[in-house]
Amino acid sequence: MSSPTRIVDLNKVRLTNLLLLPLSAVFFIVSRLRFYCYKLGVLRVSHSKTPVIVVGNITVGGSGKTPIVIALCHYFEKQGKRVGVVSRGYGGEYKQDTLLVTDSTKSSECGDEPALIASETKANVVVARRRSLAVQYLTEHDLVDVIISDDGLQHYAMGRKIEIAVVDSVDGLGNGFLLPAGPLRELPSRLASVDIVINNGAGSDADISSHLVAKQFVNVVTGEVRSLNSFESTRCYAVAGIAKPERFFATLEALKIDVVQKPFSDHHPFSDNDLSFEEGYPLLMTSKDCVKCRFFATSQMWYLAVNAELSDGFYQQLESKL
Questions:
Q1: Beta strands in the chain (DSSP E)
Q2: Confidence of residue 19 (pLDDT cuts 50, 70, 90)
């Protein structure tokens, strides 16, 4: 059975990548030394009595982890379990060692992904520069029955029960080089050591796959829900501050929406000035961007609600390893 996780695109190799290979060699040596220091007990691993499930990847950039984390939260919540999520809170300006995300926590403080997870689930979401401290917070306050780490596959100071690696089926493993010459945080062989590999967006030939399925449009201010065909043939601004904004735009165009593209950098800290466009067209955005705009949102703003749907067999594999 073919596996999209092994795709390496040599067409992406450029002269600059080759020139950076010596630095990749240094990165490899340092990362391997760090890995073995944890494995051999030279550096301390913080183990938890509560099972920790890591949802990460071996590449930089968006691979679709957060929607899968949200899907896992819903899965355990339906079982009546108290779910905790830990995250580094990329881009968050928090100063304390740990921060429990609440309804009043701004995304600028905790990071956009933790804010999204907290808004979409009932999970206790805690951010910390060291995820192991977030795990410790959740367990010491007796808040959880299971903990999910949004990213953190390489955070070896945090003990874990299950490792899930998410691989983007379109970009694969890029040019196959380690940072900074390529996108890899670890060698492709690392995928053989994780418990489950999810091929995000892969076809039916993948053992375990995940797909984002668009459900509806939701007004950021009023909560009004509209069907997917509500904006058909309507000119709309499409705002995306994610790793691959072109995919969001393509989704809207597939819904036959007349899209005016407004891409921003990944994790862009939106302000009301960013979204003050000349025309009064409806403004469509991702749910991840929506949480950064809720404190200055207008009724012009809508987000596309999506669910990550995992292939048959994923949850059976997960339960067998818990």
A1: 52-56, 83-87, 98-100, 124-128, 146-150, 162-168, 196-200, 209-219, 225-226, 235-240, 258-263, 283-286, 301-310
A2: very high
The domain ranges of the chain are 4-207, 211-309
pLDDT digits (tens, 9 = 90+) for 275-300: 999 899 999 999 999 999 988 999 99
- Cβ proximity of 225 and 302 under 8 Å: no
How much is the pTM?
0.92
Domain spanning 4-207, CATH architecture: 3-Layer(aba) Sandwich (3.40)
Average pLDDT of span 46-72:
94
Q: Residue written as tokens 């043939």?
A: 233
φ, ψ dihedrals at 87, nearest 5°: -155, 155
Three-state secondary-structure class, residue 86: strand
